[in-house]
Amino acid sequence: MDAKDLLRIIDDGENAELECKAAKGGLPKDVWETYSAFANTNGGIILLGVEQKGQEFFPVDVDAKKLVKDFWDGINNPQRISKNILVDRNVQIIEVDGKEIVKIYVPRASREDKPIYIGHNPFTGTYRRNYEGDYKCTKEEVQRMIADQSPIPQDSKVLPNYGLNDLNMESVRSYRNRFSSLKPDHPWNGLELEEFLYKIGALGRLRETNEEGLTLAGLLMFGEERSITEYLPQYFLEYREKSSDVPGERWTDRIISSDGTWSGNLYDFYFKVIRRLTDDLNIPFQMEGLFRKDDTRVHAALREALVNTLAHADYYGQRGIVVEKEKMLFRFSNPGVLRIPLQQALKGGISDPRNPTIFKMFMLIGLGERAGSGIENIHLAWKEQHWTAPELIEEFQPDRTILTLRTTSLLPQESVDFLKAVLGKHYKFLSNDEVLILVTAHQENYVTNTRLQSLTDKKSDEISKLLSGLVEKGYLEPNGQGRGTKYTLTEMFHQKSIGNSRYNRISSGPNVNNSGPNAANSGPNENEQTKDHEKVLLDISELARKKKRLNPSEMDEIILNLCAIKPLTLKELSQLLNRQMDPLRKKYISRLLKEGKLEPLYPEQINHPKQAYMTRSLFTNQH
User: Fold this and answer.
1) Which domains, ranges and CATH numbers included, belong to the chain?
2) In terms of Cα–Cα distance, which of 510, 523, 538 is closest to 612?
3) 383-423, pLDDT tens digit by residue?
């Protein structure tokens, strides 16, 4: 049987990952690592009694009933695993080709239950899932999960050594003016400054000692950047704007919180950024009675997106907040993953902001909708314009939430023309859904089952069949496993893109032809150049392919020499070196990245489906 046959029996979790274990010798020891990883990420499905070879799956003979008993015994043993979050229906025995398979569905754990870990120590037994498989969490990742367990909001913490001297008073005055203009009869308008700040949550009291101080929300919202970074050294706000889609062009406008020309706090950042996001929106004006209405659903959606980014961020996390505006998209990125499952966030109606006090402060001056309605309102605004549906994703290592809003049509003419140019007469045999899938892959660099559910009215299993069909036709290439698989256009499409700027949408990463970042300029001799590269790569890696064991320093040198030729994916390195991907990543790639000898091609998206690695010198030269 092949992958698509097996996927048809998997009816849980549209975004689930899939882990197959042969389990010929009994319950595998690493099943607990996968259980921990799925629970701490986005859930997934474990299949016991299935052997995987490439993209094909084969059921094998196992004692399914004993596997189930041993699994329940282990998961209910607190000496082995910290908590059982499964119920009886999560574990099933199913029959495939006359053989019994154990199917275990692991849901995403609630933030109150995370981290789910092996043994007694969360700092040594906590795992997560990324694009390449299970990995052991760092101390910082575990600390962030433990911090999110608390029912006490992050931003309500009182900082006793911080006071009014740490605030930018111009920001505070501006906020009070907006508040009084919006609510002229509100009783808080007559309060003294400190009492007003206490009412909105910017000041707090430690009840044990009756000591007063700024709350974290107050410091972030109105503080001076120097005071904020003294408490949160990793705090950083950035806005980037690029006016054209020419690859390599520098940002035409940039705001950072640390440049010293303004306060650097959240309140002032919001108003500096929102004007830039909305000042040139090409949206037809509307009439409200006899008057022109310049404020549209799109304007409101961008305000909502920016407020949500600031209210949901984990300010103890890495890389800060980044807001980007390009010719055809807006992107909002903040540290910290969602505190509710991704699917629940996309449906709307439920919200669990990490910083509810900051959210309340914005709502008090008319910014931000009721909790849980933000994403829903953004979707409605984009649907009204017939634009591509918003994309909300989570990334790990480090934890980030990214909302991308594209102002492109669901079926841009340039992408349709591109498909017609590549496929010729075969284009007319595509269904409307197949065209949408290929167009999305062309516009967004890849598609997933979950992404397509947000673009169509089809269910997960229907989309799986469509994707499998396009793979069989040679139009899509799968990367990854299960329902989390990312599908990219195959080499035939990339060959058409090379050297043709009209069609070259996939300009930010390595070309499928593996000709490096400058592939678009490689000219008519590109095929010969690619063949030369392949020969050099094979020559460099010959020793590793011939010898099963190499001195680590020898392997390091080979990897660095390979990645100096051009960016290489983990899969490509695995094939060149004749080594399995997971050990190669854990033993060599991760270490070389930490040592600064390798650089990821996509540093802002560590789990990018086309992530590739190159030597630091190559990275420096190319950029």
Assistant:
1) 3-147 (3.30.950.30), 152-285+292-407 (3.30.565.60), 413-498 (1.10.10.10), 542-615 (1.10.10.10)
2) 510
3) 888 788 888 888 888 889 999 998 887 777 888 888 888 88
